[in-house]
Amino acid sequence: MTDPDQPRAPEPDVEHLAATLRRRREELADASGVRIGRGDVVHKLATHMWAGVAVPAIACHAAVDPLRLTASSGPVTCRRCLGRGRGERDRQTPGQTALDV
């Protein structure tokens, strides 16, 4: 029988996923921007927390899978990412498809 007061060790599959996400973050750490898959738009790289693990993400939330992100050396071209932090958080960016977030 286990003691309910003792902290439980993480499940192997959860720890494997956490290690994969940590490694992905390290791979993208020096990128000036990221693309979603082979897309043309360069997004601003951000970090989000998931189950206590810092996970690479994009500022505009257009994709949630950090494994789809690829490093890009080009400048950020996503209008939503560029608009963040300038008081335009909830306003639709002209010329870019609206996202349901």
**Overall helicity:** 10-25%
**How confident overall, as mean pLDDT?**
80
For the secondary structure, the number of strands is 4
Number of helices: 2
How does the helix and strand content classify structurally?
alpha+beta
Across the major sheet, the strand order is 1-4
List the helices and strands and how they pair.
Elements: H1 12-28, E1 33-36, E2 45-50, E3 53-58, E4 69-72, H2 79-83
Antiparallel strand pairs: 1-4, 2-3
Describe the structure.
The chain is 22% helix and 20% strand. The chain has two helices and four strands; from the N terminus they run αββββα. Strand 2 (45-50) and strand 3 (53-58) form a beta hairpin.
Short description:
The chain is an alpha+beta fold and 101 residues long. The chain has 2 helices and 4 strands, in the order H-E-E-E-E-H.
Question: Which characteristics define this entry?
Answer:
two-stranded antiparallel sheet; 20% strand
